[in-house]
Ferredoxin (Chelatococcus reniformis), 440 residues
Amino acid sequence: MHHLSPAMKACIDDCLACYATCLGTAMNHCLEAGGEHVAPPHFRLMMACAEICRTSAHFMLINTPHHAHTCRECAEICAECADDCARIGGMEDCVRACRACAESCRKMAA
Amino acid sequence: MHHLSPAMKACIDDCLACYATCLGTAMNHCLEAGGEHVAPPHFRLMMACAEICRTSAHFMLINTPHHAHTCRECAEICAECADDCARIGGMEDCVRACRACAESCRKMAA
Amino acid sequence: MHHLSPAMKACIDDCLACYATCLGTAMNHCLEAGGEHVAPPHFRLMMACAEICRTSAHFMLINTPHHAHTCRECAEICAECADDCARIGGMEDCVRACRACAESCRKMAA
Amino acid sequence: MHHLSPAMKACIDDCLACYATCLGTAMNHCLEAGGEHVAPPHFRLMMACAEICRTSAHFMLINTPHHAHTCRECAEICAECADDCARIGGMEDCVRACRACAESCRKMAA
């Protein structure tokens, strides 16, 4: 897709990677571990993070100027999700994917 | 779903109705009419509107506090989409659904 | 949307209602009840049901002939989800929405 | 995500890559080229392909056994989309992404 800038392409990749990691971790690791992993605030945050990442990627692919707003919201939720996963522990992949996506989205939102 | 407030339930319904109307209108009426109906800025706005409505409904159903931010963005895109559909003409259903959703989302974002 | 048949419009409504009920029930009732409500097979089935309903509605709105296949799969998953919710109990709304959607989708798949 | 098999991880990647390529191509290249690129049957096929790829990836990440059915449908739509893009021409990226995804999904559906 020659039509999208390299920075935007990288951000789409980061969003899709974070979407996959959050959803996969929530529906496998968290659901199987139970306990605080399925506490409503944590689990909802994981699912909200997966959904906003999916949507931000979609907005950039559609090439709508509103992607700046979804990217800003995505950066915020990803940062919060990274912190919550780090607090609970055992989800290093998810922490990494969320931090990378937050940084990438922050740039696109600027 | 007894767990969600009546205002939130109404907003979810408005978002899903607007999602369906925008997507259905874009992929049928606009695509078949051609011309300015498939001009990139208009068509992208219709698709962005459908997607943010879908996502805002999702955030309210998940019951995440971040729904206030997706609802604010949804209200903005819906208002813009209503204006653009009114300008082009022949899409009264879409104008109505977008205005109703914008109003509903503005309340949830407050 | 004058362009879609009344039967298809009704099926879209049933799919979106079932999507909202399954997702809302999973992320509120099930997550808060815990126990067998968050047992991986049940919770995954609820989330798969929400997603296929969302997709089937999308396919009908796009007006692609492939909607017959997503509707067939949707009918199957909804029927299974209704049975599992009935088995666990306390989710009558979800059972009703799933059965209505299954019947509606079965007709569209024929 | 250690919990998913290497073949499933590869298929998720192929689905997300094909989703991004189809959606990005439709909403940029096709919309800007106009003509047969926005003919309803072609454009709907591109959008249906993007959506089923998104859904198949979601089903695998959720880890539901129903992913076999969405993967089978995904393989079919991707193959059809690849042929239609090849027929129109100038969308080699999309042809490649669709063929790779079709092959990957066919294996997961078996």
